[in-house]
Design goal:
heterodimer, A: mainly alpha, ABC transporter involved in vitamin B12 uptake, BtuC, two-stranded antiparallel ribbon, 75% helix, B: alpha/beta, Rossmann fold
């Protein structure tokens, strides 16, 4: 039983991180129907910002969080304005847009390697490393930071979408950009906002996974595919879906490694993803209206 | 477009150049590079079939490439069979795995299919690493036997031998190219493009869209397997890192670089990416930056890939030469419409009968015990207020939706809940409320495609260009031209269907339905969005169609249109039939008037 609870603690922690990456992915998808291959690399960049600001410069954690979110958010916003917008203006295909995010992914990975080197680096946690013992279960203090950060981010987003006009305008843009334009919403600024938020949440996920897994330029791909899986499992474009999907991926990975074999934990995640897609393509919490697009 | 002669000469020069490559003073390394390009070209071409023609993205292609490599390598290394047999076997294995994945996965499209294939690719990668007994695990499979040709090794350390393998790859590459070109042009090409453009419309002209999608997916995977076997027997060592998700992305990149949907574009894309990869290999992290810059260059500067760029250049050259591009479209059409058209004997027998048909969507009873008949040779109108279930009824009759209970008989055959393509093949064609054309096909091709089942030829015969297939195609073309002349669309034969104005698109949809040689056509609001003049023209057109013996069942809101056209009218209200008779009877029916105009409370009380 204590084994089970021990694994559960790890699973929820990991799940909270995947949920954040899926949240960013969903935001970007909801507003622009874009499959962002760079999502994992944006998270990696968040972790790298942590390496420098928290590791080398020893800045306070709140400041590091702010910097990571703002820097990466602005970077993806700049990518949107500098690459995606011009492409959209030329009536580029969705394929071109997706390829552009692939280019960003490669660029970020290459650039990170040039700046920070190829090796794994530690990201310091804002809390100590002395484990807490709660009823026989070991809890690394940083786990609480992870779960807390993720919870705050999701609560903020729930509030944003349910209670603010901007949040509702953003949802409207995702559903029907033309109609949104007709009622006076500027879809361009809405997409820009989602890009900033989408990049920011990815960075947050990367920054808080850093103290658990280390940070390295090549960590993005694995985060991206698990973020995709979380997003699809929960329901593409759905906010609670990102949370649920993230937790499921965290559970599958941790319990798969704990009870089956760590070698197969990824395969288990993606097997589950395939089954969900075959049985309920919209995901567990997504709207069952699946819209397929040609690339 | 280049003229045909110039194209032939250019192709011949290219082929001679490719075959004489090993005779040039190239280093062994450069020849090896040519071999790698050939293999990645086969992989990219196989992906283009799926991505460029069927419009579906697979992120598992490197996985299938790996399945082919491991399957062939295991067969030859364990001495079970020679390379020459192992390669086709590996292709079949890959094709079958592809079909097995495709059966559930191809119910998804676009982004969702991309995610499902990504998941499958990652699972395959895990299996390559973990099945240590079979694949050698992370260390890979060593000591693969070199393929032999009449007792001599085809690959080995000497330069001459590298050149021999190059010939093998060149032949395999050209064969793949020719096969895929053939498959994606003519009759089969039209079918693939139609399924991509609109699965609904494709089913409505009798195409089994599932079979087409699964076949193309399987073939695409089989050719990925061919590339895999060729790769394993070139390097003689394979390890999981050649078959990862990243490799799938690179294959996709080669397709986009070269130009989607061209088959030859991805060959160029593969060459560029392979060479770029080799040139920048020593730059470490900068290599990724080069790739990123190259992608941005392609999508920004040459959005249709390198092949698109070359086509534009070639187009400019030939325009200077006088240009031949528009000649085909200007060809006069001298086929007489009536002569070539098949016609049916019109009788007064019942052609379609519907009994007790019901359909429920969740809490909404869309159709309730619906029954009516359509007699052969008549124009019957189905009218009713918005939301009364007309389109649902159409869909249930034509197989696009499954009715819960009831019976539909068509030409004496029970057809309820048959697949839409089967009902279409039985002689029932239809149009859609929202026009469903094959937008990437020309006006002529839209109709030709629909006629393919009438003027049919065996697939093999078509593929090999047998005379019976050529004759069927010629007859199909003549019939299509006749239909298009009758529809007044013959001026626009070689325009993309998407460029027609809305009213003409509606007419084309009907002409396409007629090309399937139907006994009955269902038209869903054909006059919607037409002005009075256009509606009158349409009514004339439909009368001519009826006079040829094609029975028509039409849903329409335009009452003047309906009452002037229809021989009989059936009225649907909230999922029930409330009247069935001649236009005059129906117009004076109090129930119908109430359904359209509503009743005052006093009248309602009287009725009760």
């Amino acid at each position: 039983m204590s084994d089970f609870l021990q694994l559960l603690v790890g699973a929820v922690t990991l799940g909270a991180i995947y949920a954040l990456i899926a949240l960013g992915f969903n935001l970007i998808f909801a507003a622009s129907r874009l499959m962002n291959f760079a999502q994992g690399d944006l998270a990696m960049l968040g972790a790298m910002v942590g390496v420098t600001l928290a590791g080398t410069l020893h800045l306070p954690f709140s400041l590091v969080v702010l910097a990571a979110v703002v820097v990466v958010g602005l970077l993806f916003l700049a990518f949107n304005l500098g690459v995606l917008r011009p492409l959209a203006k030329r009536n580029a295909t969705l394929t071109s847009m997706v390829m552009a995010t692939l280019a960003l992914s490669m660029f970020l990975q290459g650039a990170a390697e040039l700046i920070w080197g190829r090796l794994e680096q530690a990201v310091p946690s804002p809390v100590g490393s002395t484990p807490l013992l709660v009823g026989g279960i070991v809890i690394v203090p940083h786990y609480l930071v992870v779960v807390g950060t993720s919870a705050v981010a999701f609560l903020a987003m729930f509030f944003f979408f349910r209670r603010t006009l901007t949040g509702k305008a953003l949802l409207a843009t995702g559903f029907e950009p033309e109609a949104a334009r007709l009622v006076g919403i500027n879809p361009v600024s809405m997409v820009a906002l989602t890009c900033f938020l989408g990049g920011g949440f990815a960075a947050l996920g990367g920054l808080i996974i850093g103290p658990i897994t280390f940070a390295a330029p090549w960590m993005g791909l694995s985060l991206a595919v698990k973020g995709f899986a979380a997003s699809m499992l929960g329901g593409l474009g759905s906010l609670p879906g990102a949370l649920l999907g993230g937790l499921i991926v965290g559970l599958l990975e941790t319990f798969g490694a704990g009870y089956v074999s760590s070698a197969y934990s990824d395969a288990i995640i993606f097997l589950a993803l395939m089954l969900i897609l075959f049985v309920r393509p919209a995901g567990l919490l997504g709207s069952p209206l699946v819209t397929g697009e040609h690339f | 477009m280049l003229s045909k002669n110039m194209k032939t000469v250019a192709t011949a020069v290219l082929v001679v150049l490719l075959f004489s490559l090993p005779l040039l003073p190239l280093t062994k390394y450069q020849l090896h590079l040519a071999n790698l390009i050939a293999i990645s070209a086969i992989l990219a071409m196989s992906l283009d079939l799926l991505f460029g023609y069927l419009g579906q993205m697979s992120l598992a292609h490197a996985g299938f490439y790996g399945v082919g490599a491991y399957a062939a390598a295991l067969l030859t290394t364990h001495g079970i069979m020679s390379f020459w047999l192992a390669t086709p076997v590996a292709m079949v294995v890959c094709g079958l795995v592809g079909v097995l994945l495709g059966l559930p996965a191809l119910r998804l499209t676009g982004f969702y299919l991309a995610m499902a294939t990504m998941a499958f690719g990652i699972i395959l990668s895990t299996l390559f690493v973990q099945s240590v007994d079979l694949t050698g695990g992370p260390n890979g499979l060593l000591g693969i036997n070199p393929p032999q040709f009449f007792g001599t090794d085809l690959i080995g350390p000497q330069k001459g031998i590298v050149g021999n393998y190059y010939y093998l790859l060149l032949i395999a590459g050209i064969a793949t190219y020719l096969f895929l070109r053939r498959l994606t042009s003519g009759r089969t090409g039209r079918i693939i493009t139609a399924v991509r453009d609109s699965t609904l419309a494709a089913a409505a002209v009798g195409i089994n869209t599932r079979i087409v999608q699964i076949t193309i997916f399987g073939l695409s995977c089989a050719f990925a397997g061919l590339a895999g076997s060729l790769y394993a027997h070139l390097i003689l060592y394979i390890s999981p890192e050649s078959f990862t998700f990243t490799n799938s992305l690179l294959a996709l990149l080669a397709v986009v670089f070269g130009g989607i949907g061209t088959i030859w574009g991805p060959v160029i894309g593969s060459a560029i990416l392979t060479i770029l990869g080799e040139l920048t290999r020593s730059f470490g992290a900068y290599q990724l930056l080069f790739y990123a810059a190259a992608i941005v260059f392609v999508i920004m500067i040459v959005p249709h890939g390198i092949s698109g760029l070359l086509r534009d250049i070639a187009g400019k050259v030939s325009r200077r030469d006088g240009g031949t591009a528009s000649r085909r479209s200007a060809a006069p059409c001298d086929v007489q419409p009536a002569a070539a058209l098949p016609s049916f004997e019109a009788g007064k027998a019942t052609l379609l009968s519907v009994h007790g048909l019901s359909k429920r969507f969740g809490g909404l009873q869309a159709l309730q015990d619906v029954g009516f008949e359509v007699r052969a040779g008549e124009i019957k109108a189905l009218i009713g207020p918005n939301g009364s279930g007309k389109t649902t009824l159409f869909n249930c009759i034509s197989g696009f939706e499954k009715a819960d209970t009831g019976r539909v008989d068509f030409s004496g055959k029970a057809i309820r809940n048959l697949a839409a393509y089967r009902i279409a093949r039985a002689g029932m064609a239809r149009s859609f409320q929202i026009v469903q054309l094959f937008t990437q096909l020309t006006v002529a091709e839209n109709v030709l495609l629909a006629g393919q089942r009438v003027y049919r030829a065996s697939l093999v015969g078509t593929f090999l260009g047998f005379s019976e297939a050529t004759r069927a195609e010629r007859e199909n073309i003549a019939a299509a031209e006749a239909l298009l002349v009758e529809a007044g669309l013959h001026e626009r034969l070689s325009h993309k269907a998407s460029t027609l104005p809305y009213g003409r698109q509606r007419i084309l949809e009907i002409a396409r339905a007629l090309a399937t040689n139907p006994r009955l056509i269902l038209l869903d609001e054909p006059a919607a969005g037409l002005n009075t003049g256009e509606a009158l023209q349409l009514a004339d057109y439909l009368r001519r169609v009826r006079d040829r013996g094609v029975t028509i069942l039409v849903v329409e809101h335009n009452m003047a249109f309906v009452m002037g056209l229809a021989d009989s009218v059936v009225v649907l209200d909230r999922g029930r039939i409330i009247a069935d008779g001649t236009p005059a009877e129906v117009q004076n029916d109090p129930g119908v008037i109430a359904a359209y105009l509503g009743t005052s409370p006093a009248e309602a009380a009287l009725d009760a």
